[in-house]
Amino acid sequence: MDLRLDGVTVKAAGRALVRDLSLHVPDGSVVGLVGPNGSGKSTALRCVYRALRPTRGTVWLDGTDITSLSLRAGARSVAALTQENSGELDFTVAETVALGRTPHLRGNAPLSARERELCRDAMERMDVAHLADRGVLTLSGGERQRVLVARCLVQEPQVLVLDEPTNHLDVRHQVGLLSLLRSTGLTVLLVLHDLNLAAAVCDRIGVLEQGRLVAAGTPADILTPPLVKQVFGVDAEVVAHPRTGAPQLLYTVGT
Ligand SMILES: Nc1ncnc2c1ncn2[C@@H]1O[C@H](COP(=O)(O)OP(=O)(O)OP(=O)(O)O)[C@@H](O)[C@H]1O
Known about the structure:
Blueprint: E1 3-12, E2 15-25, E3 30-34, H1 41-48, E4 56-61, E5 64-65, H2 71-77, E6 78-81, H3 93-98, H4 113-125, H5 141-154, E7 159-163, H6 171-184, E8 187-191, H7 195-201, E9 204-209, E10 212-217, H8 219-222, H9 225-232, E11 236-240, E12 247-251
Parallel strand pairs: 3-8, 3-9, 6-7, 7-8
Antiparallel strand pairs: 1-2, 1-4, 4-5, 9-10, 11-12
The structure holds adenosine-5'-triphosphate.
Adenosine-5'-triphosphate binds at residues 12-13, 17, 35, 37-43.
GO molecular function: ATP binding; ATP hydrolysis activity
Protein name: ABC transporter ATP-binding protein
Organism: Streptomonospora mangrovi
């Protein structure tokens, strides 16, 4: 499913948090948004998973304005891993993952055998099956993050929107999650702070600065020392990953 942000502007508290953002995420591709703290990345994603309505501009899903879809229909297409955690209730892990089926359920119908299998499979893929009966509020940050990704997967969306999905994850689970994202074939828009992980997983990267898209292109186009200096104020060297050729940044800490 093709995702397109077209001239999206979000204004709040008298200023533009995102200004005239146009970004295309072609069907089946992985596009990353990077940028300094407060540059508008989460705000842009919120417009896609409909926690926010843009002040101007449109988000298109396969050519349909997402605001013309019912919330339920939208949730059958788009699953989101957000930074908003306050809504978590004291459900078990298995119950939390099963909530991902909500947009597909009719009334109070119980999950079908296929849906229960889907939930088990997602929990195994995210390495949380052993936590199935634990309360989500008792989990570590990384365990909880993996449960929420499993919930997104059982939603069987065509588009995944992920706000810092590697947050809290150890290196094994970071690599595992990003490999999984690449293998799903879904259309993926994600925010990442780690530019090297972004280079490893993204087909294209957009760079936000003060709400504006200041660069967009392949990781090799984008992750250059001048851009990193300009946008993040950091000196970096770029080397090519010896096996994949992806650009990787080396930072100097201290003098
Ligand atoms: N409802 C709001 N009212 C006023 N300002 C807001 C609101 N929501 C976000 N902001 C501000 O908008 C800017 C962009 O916020 P946003 O969360 O999109 O940034 P971000 O790029 O995701 O940052 P981070 O990397 O720190 O997660 C920030 O300065 C933030 O304080």
